[in-house]
Structure formats: C-alpha cells, structure tokens
Amino acid sequence: MTPGGDDARAPRVVVGVGGGIAAYKACGLIRLLTESGCHVDVVPTQAALEFVGTATFEALSGNPVTTGVFSDVPSVRHVALGQRADLVVVAPATADLLARAASGRADDLLTSTLLTARCPVLLAPAMHTEMWEHPATRRNVGTLRGDGLHVMPPASGRLTGADTGAGRLPEPADIARLAHLLLDGGRMPWDLHGEHVVVTAGGTREDVDPVRFLGNRSSGKQGYAIAAVAAARGARVTLVTSADLPTPAAVEAVPIESARELRDETLRLAEGADVVIKAAAVADFRPADVAGSKLKKGSSTEPESIGLTVNPDILAELVDARTAGRVPADCLLVGFAAETGDASGTVLEHGRAKLARKGCDLLVVNEVGRGTTFGEDVNGGWILDTAGGEVLLDRVSKDLVASRVLDAVVAASGSATTGRRGAHHTD
C-alpha cells in the first residue's frame, strides 16, 4: 500500500501535531503508520508548522494538510475527519493543546476533530518537566482521562537545551505500538495507577567460558510488550531483562544475564511490588563449572562433556517468599509456561499441572517450538487461574496478548480503580 491508504479497508488514523520542538518526531510516527497500511490524515496546529512544514507532512502521508476549520468548507472537514477516523493520535500533545482539549475548545481543525471523534484517542504529551508537573497540566490530564481519552506517560530524558527530566516525547515506535493496540481492539484504561509492576523478560545466559553460554530462543518481546502496556495503563514498571531491545517509554530497565542474577533482582524488587509477571524464559540448567579461559577444540582444555546443575526455580521461590512474608501477601504472582505437548499430555494439561505445582495466581501458557512464539510478533495460548478459570488467547499481536494478560491481572487483583497500598489519583 502506498502512503495515503488507497485501500478502503485501511484503518483511518488522524495524526495531530502540536506546536513543540518534538513535532519532528511526528514524521517518524506518520511513516510507521503509513507503512503498516494505515490511511493517515495529518492535522497540525498552526504552531506546529513553525517546526515542520506542510510539504513534509503531505509527502509522508500522501494526503493534503490543513490547520483551519475554513479549509475545504464544502466537505465539512472539521467534522468529517473525526467522524470517519478509527483512531486519533496527537504527538506531541503540548501543555497548551492539552489545556484546550480538556476545556472542549474548538478553535482550530485539530481541537474540532478531537470533539467530533468517537473513536479511541491517544495523546502523547511533550513539554518541559516543570510544565508537565504543574497542577494545571495534571488537572487537564485528569479531565482528559476521565473523558475516556488515553494519555501516555511521557518519557524521561533530554529535553530542549541542556534540560533533562520527565516530559520527553516517547519514541515514534512506542507511540505506534499503542496506536496499533487500540486499532486492534486492545484495552488501555488507566487502571494500574498506583501499582508497582515488576516484569521479567528475555532468555537467561549461562556461562560455559568467557566466550560461550547456554541459552534459549526467547526474544523478550512478550515481556517488553507487557511492560509497555502496563506503563500505558498507569503502573510504575520495573523491567528485569536480558534482552537487547529498546526500553519502552516510562519503564525502568534492570539488566541481567544469568538465572541467578534474575532471581536476585526479582526477589529484591518483589519485596515492594504489587504485581510480578515472570515472562522471562529461564534456563533450567547451567554449567556446573565455568571455565576461566576459552575452551578450545583439540587442546588440553577441550572437555569430554559439560556437567550441568539445576538453576533456582524463581517462581516457586517467589511463592515461598510471599508465604513467609518477605513478599507482600497481596502481591499478585503471574507465571509463564512455554510448553510443548508430548506423550504424557497436551500443552494445556502440562500448563494446568504447572499452575498447581507452582502455586502462583495466574499462569500464561504458550505452545512453543522452532518458528512458534519465540522471536515472533504474535503469540497465543491460555491464561489459567487457581479457581479453574481458563481464557483462550488467539494468536494475535504480543501487545494485544499483553493487554489481555493485564486485564486478567486487574480482575484477579481487584485493583481496577484503586491501588492496594496507595490511594488512586490521576496525574
């Protein structure tokens, strides 16, 4: 499909662009959306055109660009854009734009479109930290979320000039990920605010010598998807990871490599967590002895075999720590089971047995193998709970799987509107 989305079945996305220096990043977002097959209409504010010109937006989207309600009056463009859109994304959403949208202003084409849209609306704020933290901005964000709009937490990092802090526009890929989640029907309510969610991701590496390691095919994509969506739903997210993937916006990453490092960090963080989602693919075994120098074929150091020893069962240790009071009694524990069927049972049967054996609250069961789940952008399986409940996960995007796993977490924890150890508030 060419930019402009000639296919009538293409999702129609309006990309609003506010007047901030981060407007240049909107160009990357537009390209990602058009390349994925979306029909994109770009609606900048007049101030946005001080940073990026009309010609750029038109070239990237393949559609005409206007800012005012008096452009193309016969088509009633200020109403039609919102009425026919499947999604509206605003990036960057400046403090001024958030204020105008929260008060219901309709003084340009973008704010008019926001008022007429009946589809999901995703706002990606970008501004200096002082502006983001100002009570007026917090009130406006609370109003917008209360009206059902989705406001992404901003990233932290370099801002205009030498300043750094919260208020940086998330990267285009982070915004596009959530845009596609909403287009696919995924849920993104602000229902995890006040919760500390710990997510583990990636496959562990167990050293054989300074060069080689034992590992598995896990890419970490599912854990990263859970972290990204949990942050978008308001959680404070800590991602314990071995994967070499970009850290999602508003997520703190803790790098690890081995199963024992993963165990230590996860148990430490679980002491103050509301939810632990253990999506990492942990190696069951590690070399019993790690060589101090490279093992070379044909040399005196060439081993006849490599002895293995069992790695810690992190999920079982989490359950034991909760029972012993080292992890909060109301901390929800979620495990993942990468299974293959065999002569002794099906994937689902193995998953049910693992849930009973581990003692966690929820277990996400995936069927895996070469070319299935590991490294792919889609996933499927089941979510099992201790009461015998079972939710089928069709093979859909890992972001949509993440959304459904978090739906199950919220339902199981009873934290849809209130953090268990902190009063709910919107910011």
Fold topology:
Layout (H helix, E strand, L loop, with lengths): L11 E6 L5 H13 L3 E6 L9 H8 L15 H8 L2 E7 L1 H8 L6 H8 L4 E5 L3 H5 L1 H12 L3 E2 L3 E4 L5 E5 L3 H12 L12 E6 L4 E2 L5 E2 L6 H12 L3 E6 L9 E5 L3 H12 L4 E4 L6 E3 L20 E3 L3 H11 L7 E8 L7 H12 L3 E6 L10 E8 L4 E8 H16 L14
Parallel strand pairs: 1-2, 1-3, 3-4, 4-5, 8-11, 8-13, 11-12, 13-16, 16-17
Antiparallel strand pairs: 6-7, 9-10, 14-15, 17-18, 18-19
Helix pairs in contact: 1-2, 1-8, 3-5, 4-7, 9-13, 10-11
What do these coordinates show?
The structure is a single chain. This protein has helices at residues 23-35, 54-61, 77-84, 95-102, 109-116, 129-133, 135-146, 172-183, 221-232, 259-270, 314-324, 347-358, 398-413, and strands spanning 12-17, 39-44, 87-93, 121-125, 150-151, 155-158, 164-168, 196-201, 206-207, 213-214, 236-241, 251-255, 275-278, 285-287, 308-310, 332-339, 362-367, 378-385, 390-397. The protein is an alpha/beta fold. The strands form five sheets. Strands 12-11-8-13-16-17-18-19 form an eight-stranded mixed β-sheet, sandwiched between helices. A five-stranded parallel β-sheet has the order 2-1-3-4-5, sandwiched between helices. A two-stranded antiparallel ribbon has the order 6-7. α1 packs across α8 (172-183). The two termini are 39 Å apart. Residues 415-427 have low confidence and may be disordered.
